[in-house]
């Protein structure tokens, strides 16, 4: 007997965790007690499995190797501990390590028949009948369930391969089949495949098949069946869903896009239709606010805002997959979006997502096309490959400790950083949170994890290398990031993950990376470059200064020469003019003769002097200039 003393106020709790028979099987009965974050008491016993006591309900659960599908593998649990996320880790002798977590199940899986065959669980269609009952179809069987799903019975007549259902204005149930046309109240009409059946605002049935066009089908009171077909687009529609809009128009979602037409207008004019979107459309839904939700194959889900503009939600925004199977709405106004890899509740007001992952069976998380329905009591009903899944009307994801992402390994050119020498470049801080690499080590890979071992679906990560990336990367399931040929410099790597509530965790994980420059780009090399440039600049300066000085001296000489030339030109002009006048006057006196005979000799001397001065001016002065 184990006695647990609860200091929080619950008193003493006595639990019988092993009996005397164990003493003969083992001589080392180890017992470990852990109280998890939700107040549950976990007791592991070496030889008797694990006991879980819920203080709120006062219920004891005994987990052995026979329970939980043999998850333990052995009853000999030698150690137990709780991690930061509230998970319980068990060390099982000769069977490794087991991770567990106690959660409150907020859903129920329902099979149509007590049969383990695949066809019995694969839900193909879920539809509400006029009386409120639910029509459910698998590969081979047509069933009708009560509005609250308390009863489920097979519906006759036996119709195989039902793909679609609809009710006309007269209340008759139409069933579209894979090969046999339609059945109206159990009577077969027409032929071929009918994927979609929807009544328009006047109660007329419109149908379309994978290899045909949209057709209006009519059945008279006498049982005469007729069709009128209309081709939308240039090729086969390959339709997936049809929806009657509030304005009376019909929307058709197909592989070739989204089409819209008004029935009466199309009857009058076969070209009176519109192609609204080019994406493959798998589901259509109008919520209580009148917003149209469009589920696509590979492009996420689209809706419209108050201005009529399209808003798209994809895996980058937190969807489990971009292949959207169906769209619905719960009683709280949350939009339920199911995909091929899980589902989410999306709140248009807060733009947050809450994930819905069911059990350990992947088939329960692979949702069927156009199989989402809200029951009369507020619960949500989904069709999956593993049967019907009914979710509580007040579903909330289990409270979890905020997830943290850590960098688990950094490799350089394929070599883990912890194997690199600590001196010099690698592991400069000694704690493994920084790394220094050379310029020739061109490939750096960061690996990271949030260590969430209980989540069935892959975790979405986003990362950023500050100094290289301009922003956060797109959401990805890959838990590594690779960078090649990084320029020299300092970088900081950060990573975050998408939590269960659809919000990104705080990027707590940071890793500093320094890429050293090559020798020719190192600080010492730049110092040498600066010295060389300085010397080259000095030589160039001295050369240019010398050239400038010589050119200045030549210019001064030219100016002085010009001054001399101008001076002697002016002086010679001043000398020549009076000498010429004097020479002319003396020549005139000589020609007169007569009484000036006594003056002839002085005049001759004056004439010789004037001639000599003119010769000097004309011969000696100007040739030198």
Q: Would you give an account of this structure?
A:
The radius of gyration is 49 Å and the shape is elongated. Helix 4 packs antiparallel against helix 5. It is built from five helices and 45 strands. The N and C termini lie far apart (136 Å). The strands form twelve sheets. The chain has a four-stranded antiparallel β-sheet with strand order 3-4-5-6, with no helix packed on it. A four-stranded antiparallel β-sheet has the order 10-37-36-35, with no helix packed on it. A hairpin with a 5-residue loop joins strand 35 and strand 36. About 2% of the residues have low confidence. With 625 residues, the protein is an alpha+beta fold.
Features:
625 residues, alpha+beta, 4-stranded antiparallel beta sheet, 45 strands
